[in-house]
Amino acid sequence: MFDALSDRFSDVFRKLRGRGRITEENVREVMRDVRTALLEADVHLDVVKKFVDQVTTQAIGAEVMKTLQPDQVMIKIVHDELIKLMGPVDSRIPWVSTPPTIILMAGLQGSGKTTTCGKLAKYCLSKGKKPMMVAADLKRPAAIDQLEVLGQQLGVPVHAERDHQSAVKVCRNGISAAKKQLCDVVILDTAGRLSIDEELMNEVAQVAQTVQPHQIYLVLDAMTGQDAVNTARNFNARLELDGVILTKFDSDTRGGAILSVKSIVQKPIKFIGVGEKLDRLEEFHPDRMAGRILGMGDIVSLVEQTTQQFQADEAAKLEAKISKGNLSLDDFVGQMEKMTKGRSLKDLLKMIPGVGGMMRDTEMNVDEGEISRLKAIVNSMTPTERANPKILDASRRRRIARGSGTDPEDVSGLAKQFLQARDMMKAMSGLSMMDRMKMGSQLAQMSMTTGKMPSLKQKTSPRFERNKRDKRKDRKRKSR
Ligand SMILES: Nc1nc2c(ncn2[C@@H]2O[C@H](COP(=O)(O)OP(=O)(O)O)[C@@H](O)[C@H]2O)c(=O)[nH]1
Ligand SMILES: [Mg+2]
């Protein structure tokens, strides 16, 4: 997710860091960088202009130049402006008082409409609703099959009429069927085209006119950047959109669409799709997204994702442990393992405040296989050690390393990383977004001055390798 943009922002703030007081010229200079960064991220030109103007005016007028921590004040201004750019949004679905709530999904072919119907149905289930999906994409027979497979996976009824030619009729019949089966949400999956054409627009507009959906969501592929914004503009001209769902956010998107859609079409992003699987749908929260963009982490989403995968009581226990600061290594690794299902560990770590800004791909080299290595290390520890890795002295580390087929350095690395994360998580719970941000940026700052990156797998230096070799030789000599 927009690594390039986050990196550029980090650079910008670093330029201001530790400068003491700064001048208007300094502000203008970093804002030129921000402008380039946003343009490179494929953000709409009008949006970039407005954003840069707003931030510059505030930064020059306000505290940035008077404060001794110009980077921090600047981060706050940028952060707040990013939030304004993407929000406000109420990501909840407004259920109607006389069900069913009818949701129409529109969008181009391949944008992820059908998949998102399934995700949304799952979301409805999690809210205690009884959804039905309607296969109103009659252009491709495979589309009906696809929706039926999703329905089977979820245990959600699907209304389909294979020999029908009219999407409007299928939708109408679907809604009646839903009422009969006492379903309280109906999700209409409509046809898409590779690009916008009149026929497509007429069809969805007709469906919308006839069935009067309560919510119309436009599904957009985040990967398409500026094109997504144009698509949104076109659809918005024909349909009363209630919101946008941005998909494929897990892919290598530069961030352009997410930052442009709201201010160009005045319709909020309500959800983001972050993977192909049905549970990869997140409510959209501008504040959290701003944090992610700035590399400040997104602990709330992280905690939410974790809790989704846990039973409620297990989650409560975990939360209590986190806030008391006595999370054990077992919990930690177990949690990581659960979270990484379907998501890369790297993305998850980036959501921890402070880690994002410190992390560069070159320094941080964590892969899924790493988890099993971590598990092996933890498995070689005694329960006391797992509960409190602080007691790991050299001899314990050697024993654990032998047991797990790793190096003592790996063991101390894991312990250090864990203790750091535990402290961070403890400190984060119960804090406001702003405080978390401050903390995240301070951590980032600290790491930049010490040159230390939090890493599960620090690349070993030549000197370190040499020391290790020498020690080994020493030991051999002594044993002789
Ligand atoms: N990585 C990723 N892929 C997605 C996401 N949403 C949909 N897709 C994939 O995008 C492709 C097109 O999706 P589909 O739902 O058939 O699009 P439709 O033509 O608009 O109905 C499929 O391969 C999906 O698995 C997402 O959030 N992340
Ligand atoms: Mg489809």
Secondary structure topology:
Blueprint: H1 3-16, H2 24-40, H3 45-61, H4 70-86, E1 101-107, H5 113-126, E2 131-136, H6 141-154, E3 158-159, H7 167-180, E4 185-190, H8 198-211, E5 215-221, H9 226-238, E6 243-247, H10 256-265, E7 269-273, E8 281-283, H11 286-293, H12 299-309, H13 312-324, H14 329-340, H15 345-350, H16 355-358, H17 368-379, H18 383-387, H19 394-404, H20 408-428, H21 433-450, H22 462-479
Parallel strand pairs: 1-4, 1-5, 2-3, 2-4, 5-6, 6-7
Antiparallel strand pairs: 7-8
The structure holds guanosine-5'-diphosphate (GDP) and magnesium ion.
Guanosine-5'-diphosphate is lined by residues 107, 109-115, 192, 247-248, 250-251, 273-276, 280.
3D architecture notes:
With 480 residues, the protein is α/β, with parallel strands linked by helices. It contains 22 helices and eight strands. α9 (226-238) links the parallel β5 (215-221) and β6 (243-247). α9 packs parallel to α10 (256-265). The radius of gyration is 26 Å and the shape is globular. The structure holds guanosine-5'-diphosphate and magnesium ion (MG). Guanosine-5'-diphosphate binds next to α5.
Q: Count of DSSP E strands?
A: 8
**Count of runs of 4 or more consecutive helical residues:** 22
Give the integer mean of the pLDDT values. 79
Radius of gyration: 26 Å
